[in-house]
Amino acid sequence: MVMETLLVSTAAKTLAIIGNTLWLIPLLLAGVTYMNYDRHDPEGKIIERQNLYKEYDFIVIGGGSAGAVVASRLSEIPTWNVLLLEAGGDENEITDVPSLAAYLQLTDVDWSYKTEPTGKACLGMKNNRCNWPRGKILGGSSVLNYMIYVRGNKNDYDNWENLGNPGWNYENVLYYFKKSEDNRNPYINAKYHGKGGYQTVQESPWRTPLVLAFIQAGTEMGYPHRDINGEQQAGFMVAQGTIRRGSRCSTAKAFLRPVRTRKNLHIALNSHVTRLLINPSDKKVYGVEFRRNGRRQIVSAKKEVILSAGAINTPQIMMLSGIGPQEHLSSLGIPVLQNLRVGENLQDHVAMGGLTFLVDKPVAIIQDRFEAFGMTMYYVLKHKGPMSTLGGVEGLGFVSTKYGNRSWPDIQFHMAPASINSDNGARVKKSLGLKDSLYKAVYEPIANMDSWTIMPLLLRPKSTGWVRLRSKNPFHYPLINANYFDDPFDVQTLVEGAKIAVKIAESRAFKQFNSKVHAVPFPNCRKYPFGSDAYWECHMRTFSMTIYHPVGTCKMGPEWDKDAVVDPRLRVYGVKNLRVIDASIMPKIVSGNTNAPVIMIGEKGADLVKEDWLGNDFKLR
User: Catalytic annotation on 549?
Assistant: First the structure.
């Protein structure tokens, strides 16, 4: 009877997530996968603590890509009691399925943020606002993302150190990338990769022939097929992701489930932090206030509070607590305890979406082509097939425009064997927030036709935005200004990236599929010749697309850097016993997907905490 109740409950939730078009998938997954869960994944579900202590040594706020790592590593010290607070709930069988990434957006596991309209980008989105998905669930955005494992370029980290952050150069951070990693590709170079770590990394067990053509096309253009996480970055490869046995491997699954029985690690879900408790006389953080299941609670911290709530929620919590820009906080009536540039320096990888290439062979992913029951059963039993793809992304490429150089590429390609038309407008259009008029004019005429896409993205944007409070209410979502394309150089660089993407699609490797660009212009761009620089600029300002990489809002920097919020040991300037360990601390965004770097930051940040509190005892471990 208990199992029947669980199955009904899970099925109901998943039906709400995915909708009527794929109703068989959640039903089968909820039933078959649940009954075989322990056999397929030996790490059991985390144990949520209902009755919390009044005081812990460390309180970690946010159980996402960094927070799960931090809590796991700090609880390795048996004499430390660690509390992890997560605003969302736990993962389920649906979040485990790699191909359903887009279906998780705009659900109750997503904060469902939107950017503020600027008139410079997101013009093809409803109300000229881009959707910004962020994970509201244990595992954070590692549960919503497309699982791509990319570390960035070694020059990124050497530059961090050159900006005044000792200990953050490439050689130093490589140790932490390898520490977490369990790379299951048999051909990896041990100098750059690790085996046996918590975080599993491997290729999807299923792919289309289009990705092989993509890699061949890169070779034609002088970019080798290489491990882009190895010695050099410029090149093309089949994407690797944070998956395990065909299922998503979030940081919750990787770092928390294996240690779920530790007595000194307590996890509280559905716990929305409203503010930090700070003694105004000495600016010392002594605890956290949060609401759990509608009830206000307070917990004290003996040693430190660690903010790992991400580039949006971490600055929001700090500003609600009186740490932030003096003028902004004063305008909201929040007493200022420490004047810091919290929420500034927001950076993200903006991509040009909607670039579609048609092919005349049945080689692409088309939703209506796959028979739901058979495909789902195959995935449940074998953990293979189309449902094991990394959200649909199959290939990665790193190239240099005339503004960049081979040692530090300035454009990244995400290649997918499908496009926005491939699901007949059922889901992807909604998750992106695309205007109905744009979809009908450009993509509806080719609905369910074989197609593929390249999403060129700007690796190191010069434009920066900000996060600010909407009000003093901690349950009001913050204001987010991505400020895409504010700097003309960003536009010029991404235009060059779009032109390289078209050349890739026109290469000899794609002739076998008769690949050709879908040359129907956007209605608002018809005044420009299709394919001209002016047209591509109009296209990217219309179909602007986040790659889900917001960083930088609590900048790491030396004491003399007026924009710095945390020091190189991630301690908040002017506030005692408070540290930030997440994507917020990046002074400059890395040249690639940010999930792996954030896990690295979690690993290194946890060691910094251990060094500061254990001293020589830690060095002997």
Answer: yes
